[in-house]
Amino acid sequence: MSALSDIRFIAFDLDGTLLDSVPDLADAADKTMQALGRPGVTVEQVTTWIGNGADILIGRALSRSLEVDPDLDPALHREARQLFDRFYAEGGHQKSALYPGVKATLAAFHQAGIPMAIVTNKPAQFVPHLLEEHDIAQYFVDVIGGDTFPLKKPDPFALNWLLDKHQLRAEQMLMVGDSRNDILAAKAAACYVVGLTYGYNYGQPISASEPDIVLDHFSQLTEVVTLGS
């Protein structure tokens, strides 16, 4: 396994990387479709539809396809998104859970003095509560949601913003994620990227997006990033 010796900052995706959130997302999407009198959706379907933010998730659910129907009624799309946000908030994220090793690994990086950030396409309004709920909020110096900036992953805007804010060279930052959006954003920002195999990547292997390093378990990150010194 390759090791990176000069990492000064780590940016993490959230859903599918730190948090297995698909059961709650699927519940909210299913309730949304049923409230609109449409066929319900399954966890298996939603697992392949997430990663590009809530608007596209709902567009895919309405289209029942990874490709959003270009003829989808914008008013229906807006109504569905509002319903989804309501159902997702009302659900209280009760079915979401951290992946094995996440908390201990974040604590180790924090103890080693490595600053960390969240860079997710999830709507920003939901992120702080989730981090608090799972007792990991204290590890992050920046929390960037899908609507924090005008552009979201795979655009590198958020990563470039972090590089600028923390006065880092690209090779000093590592992005950790589970989908091609994470890999593409990191490559566009010229920073290192780890792809995790266990998350949500539209049913495709993460290795197909050619991250610098592929890991099966979150805790293996401590073997990739040199701690101390």
From TrEMBL:
Catalytic activity: 2-phosphoglycolate + H2O = glycolate + phosphate
GO cellular component, one term: cytosol
Listed GO biological process terms: carbohydrate metabolic process; DNA repair; glycolate biosynthetic process
Stored InterPro entries: HAD-like_hydrolase_sf (IPR050155), HAD-like_sf (IPR036412), HAD-SF_hydro_IA (IPR006439), HAD_2 (IPR041492), HAD_sf (IPR023214), PGP-like_dom2 (IPR023198), PGPase_prok (IPR037512)
Transmembrane segments: none
Enzyme Commission (EC) number: 3.1.3.18
Gene Ontology MF annotations: metal ion binding; phosphoglycolate phosphatase activity
Active site: D13 (nucleophile)
Cofactor: Mg(2+)
Record protein name field: Phosphoglycolate phosphatase
Originating organism: Photobacterium aphoticum
